[in-house]
Design brief:
Elements: E1 2-15, E2 18-23, E3 26-32, H1 39-51, E4 55-56, E5 62-64, E6 72-77, H2 99-116, E7 121-123, E8 131-145
Parallel strand pairs: 3-6, 6-7
Antiparallel strand pairs: 1-2, 1-3, 1-8, 4-5
Helix pairs in contact: 1-2
């Protein structure tokens, strides 16, 4: 699994003119599921996302997690994170997991963050064209790849 995690002041996702998820402060997470990802990848990604200390403490150090600041997570499934761009100029998405399994894994990751780490998780609509609006805070952007654990 690959995740792009951005610290945001606010974020929302709209599908067909309807807001399907929004947060006021926290993390915007784009999550891609690759073929071969397993249950332990879900656990690893959920733990890393929930416990990532990228919010400033009283001394201005990046020392607090999204839970510590009382923030939320906006989770967006994004198969394009699995792109292979080594050949030519048109990305290949052959490494992306099937839509059925990817949906299951993204939902499990969101549920795990919400239940085990008690962080509220909002989301987009899997497979839909989504308009994502956000204000990046910092900017602070972190990439998590479960293959590197």
């Amino acid at each position: 699994m690959r995740a792009v995690v951005q610290r945001v002041r606010n974020a929302s996702v709209t599908v067909n003119g309807t807001v399907t998820g929004s947060i006021s402060h926290g993390l915007l997470v784009y999550l891609g599921v690759e073929q071969g990802d397993q249950e332990d990848d879900i656990s690893y990604a959920a733990r890393k996302i929930a416990q990532l200390r990228i919010f400033e403490d009283d001394q201005g150090k990046l020392n607090l997690s999204v839970k510590d600041i009382g923030g939320g997570i906006l989770m967006i499934s994004q198969f394009t994170l699995c792109a292979d761009t080594r050949k030519g100029n048109r990305p290949s998405f052959n490494k992306a997991e099937s839509p059925e399994r990817a949906r299951e894994y993204v939902e499990k990751c969101s549920q795990l963050i919400s239940s085990c780490y008690t962080v509220p998780v909002e989301s987009g609509v899997f497979g839909a064209h989504m308009d994502v609006t956000y204000t990046n805070d910092g900017p602070v952007t972190i990439i998590i790849d479960t293959k590197e654990q």
